[in-house]
Amino acid sequence: xxxxxxxxxxxxxxxxxxxxxxxxxxxxxxxxxxxxxxxxxxxxxxxxxxxxxxxxxxxxxxxxxxxxxxxxxxxxxxxxxxxxxxxxxxxxxxxxxxxxxxxxxxxxxxxxxxxxxxxxxxxxxxxxxxxxxxxxxxxxxxxxxxxxxxxxxxxxxxxxxxxxxxxxxxxxxxxxxxxxxxxxxxxxxxxxxxxxxxxxxxxxxxxxxxxxxxxxxxxxxxxxxxxxxxxxxxxxxxxxxxxxxxxxxxxxxxxxxxxxxxxxxxxxxxxxxxxxxxx
Length: 279
Description:
Blueprint: E1 4-7, H1 22-33, E2 37-41, H2 46-50, E3 59-62, E4 67-70, E5 73-77, H3 82-94, E6 99-103, E7 106-109, H4 111-127, H5 132-144, E8 146-148, E9 159-165, H6 169-178, E10 182-187, E11 196-201, H7 206-217, E12 224-228, H8 234-239, E13 242-245, H9 251-256, E14 259-260, H10 268-275
Parallel strand pairs: 1-2, 1-12, 2-3, 7-8, 12-13, 13-14
Antiparallel strand pairs: 3-4, 4-5, 6-7, 6-9, 9-11, 10-11
Helix pairs in contact: 1-10, 4-5
């Protein structure tokens, strides 16, 4: 029976240096050749994904569920309103927080992101196991992808979600109070040492996006498999029939998994695909 596979990207399909292990690419190619469908299900926007050197896929879910694409066709796209974008940008600027507007057309940032982004992204990479030199390379590569805008140019109407650098965990807690009608998450760290906060449309989750895609495909939930490494991936686990946590993942995602694979750089995807008899 053909399966529909959903792969988180960072820390799952690719490592924290944004490199795709050769074994992971081989596993995806073999699975698709065997008739299975493979989608990425990520917090990244399409613009970010297009900057990554990934293998061929059947489609993608981006923006933590804001965007759904199958075989190049847009199935769903629900972003933030221009009014919400303005309110969030102004709130971040008042707090002097680096902000990134994640749109399918590009990754747009404010002045503070140019100042704070390099060191914060280095912390993120080092926290995931990169050495100092590797972390610098990751940071430089990511910062190259940002498009710097000033003033009202940041008030856009094509934004999936917004990430901002946390000066402390309190910024995330305050964002939940300031924008109760939006979904607030953190990423880039564990618990109260998270490095980034993000805000997205209400009702948008990876779970919801998977359900939208399955309905479009006329597919059955019993044929789904998800792979993730972080708390944000738990919503995939809520709706997929079988769930895999990466060996490099957090304890919460591992506890919720049906199977724990080896690390992303220890042939995690390939080994799990073999275990599941997808290849």
